[in-house]
Each structure stands twice: as structure tokens, then as C-alpha cells.
UniProtKB/TrEMBL annotation:
It comes from the Eukaryota. Residues 1-164 form the RecA family profile domain. One of its GO terms (biological process) is resolution of mitotic recombination intermediates. Pfam families: Rad51. One of its GO terms (molecular function) is four-way junction DNA binding. It comes from Apium graveolens. GO terms for cellular component: Rad51C-XRCC3 complex; replication fork. This is RecA family profile 1 domain-containing protein.
Length: 210
């Protein structure tokens, strides 16, 4: 599912490992509902489903043979970068301004950026103590503010996937309300977005997808 909007967004999603979240739809011209652009996919949960992506690329090419010379042309417009830590994500995001400046001069500049998923990086690297929680929150704010900056400057649609966690008791967590999740259920269980109030404060728009 794609949201074509030039703001920083998050998608609450229950992951399907058989479906890569970066279809080549952004490559379509504006007249066909696309962005006439390339996509950058940053993934933190290997392995990337290349086999499924190959199938999607072939199907996409067969649907629009007048737009592309080959299936390889479709694949070339989806750039993939693996992330191995939260600090690695910060380094990549920090370099986006200069990278997108170069891309903006190309025929198919990057107009879609996907980070999948932010929770996989932060849930495993930080302990539940004041020092780590403060450091984690600082990284959240630095990453989100940079993403919002490049989204506005270069007209890039940014989509960040999160994970969900079970709500163990009725009411809000520790008296805090993390978004409007009163009716969010997955597999019959009540859930809420991961990463808590710090990340919730960084998000402009939310989608919950099953």
C-alpha cells in the first residue's frame, strides 16, 4: 500500500514476509498515478524478498512494456540498502540531503523513501534504563526531523513502517495515550504501536494495515 503524499508518514503494519513493501509503482508517470521517480528502500529485517521482487518487476514490465526497455530497467529504479543498527540508520539519514541533491538532477530522481522497519532497529539495541531511553529518544527526534526536512526540500514521500505490541491490560500504557488505538486488533488481540510515546510524537500521519 502506497501513500502519495509529501510528508513524513508511518504505517502500522503486520508484516507479511512474502511481500516486499517496495513495489515499482512510483516509476509510473504522473498521468498514470505514479511519481515518475525511483525509490529508495532501507530495510532492517533481512533477508530482503528478492524472489518476490523479481516477480513483481516482471509483472510490472509486462503491464507497461511501452514505458521500459526491459525488466532490468524496472529493477534499476528501486535502490536497496540494508541497515544493521540504529546508528547506521542515523548515518544514512544524515547523508540523504547531499544524496538527494545529486538524484534530483537525474531523469528518475528518488521521490519515495521507505524505512522498513524502524522498530526492528530500536527495540533490540536499547535497554529500559534512563540513559538508553534518553539516547533512543534523541535519535528518534534527529532522524524524524531530518526526514521531514528532506521530504519538504526534495518533494519526497517518506514511509516508515513500525511494529505493534500487545496491550497487556485495559486502558493506556502507564496513563499515556499513544495514538488513537482503541479499536486496533491483530489476530483477535488488542495491539498498539511499538516504540512508545517518544516515537509517537515524531509521526505526522498513521496507517494501520493488516
Amino acid at each position: 500500500m502506497w501513500v502519495h503524499h509529501r510528508t513524513f508518514r508511518r504505517k502500522w503494519v503486520r508484516k507479511d514476509p512474502n511481500s516486499p513493501p517496495t513495489p515499482p509503482l512510483a516509476q509510473l508517470p504522473l498521468s498514470l498515478g505514479g511519481l515518475a521517480s525511483s525509490s529508495l528502500y532501507l530495510h532492517s529485517e533481512p533477508p530482503y524478498p528478492f524472489r518476490r521482487f523479481e516477480q513483481l518487476s516482471k509483472a510490472f514490465y509486462l503491464s507497461y512494456p511501452q514505458l521500459f526497455d526491459s525488466v532490468q530497467c524496472v529493477r534499476n529504479n528501486v535502490l536497496v540498502q540494508e541497515l544493521d543498527s540504529a546508528d547506521h540508520l542515523f548515518d544514512v539519514v544524515f547523508k540523504l540531503d547531499s544524496a538527494l541533491a545529486k538524484e534530483s538532477r537525474k531523469t528518475m530522481p528518488i521521490k519515495v523513501l521507505v524505512i522498513d522497519s524502524i522498530a526492528a532497529l530500536f527495540r533490540s539495541e536499547f535497554d529500559n534504563n534512563p540513559f538508553d531511553l534518553k539516547r533512543r529518544a534523541n535519535l528518534f527526534f534527529k532522524i524524524s526531523s531530518t526526514l521531514k526536512f528532506v521530504a519538504k526540500k526534495y518533494g519526497v514521500a517518506v514511509l516508515v513502517t513500525n511494529q505493534v505490541v500487545d496491550v497487556m491490560r485495559s486502558g493506556d500504557l502507564n496513563g499515556l495515550r499513544i495514538g488513537n488505538y482503541d479499536s486496533l486488533y491483530s489476530s483477535g488481540r488488542r495491539v498498539c504501536p511499538a516504540l512508545g510515546i517518544s516515537w509517537a510524537n515524531c509521526v505526522n500521519s498513521r496507517l494501520f494495515c493488516l
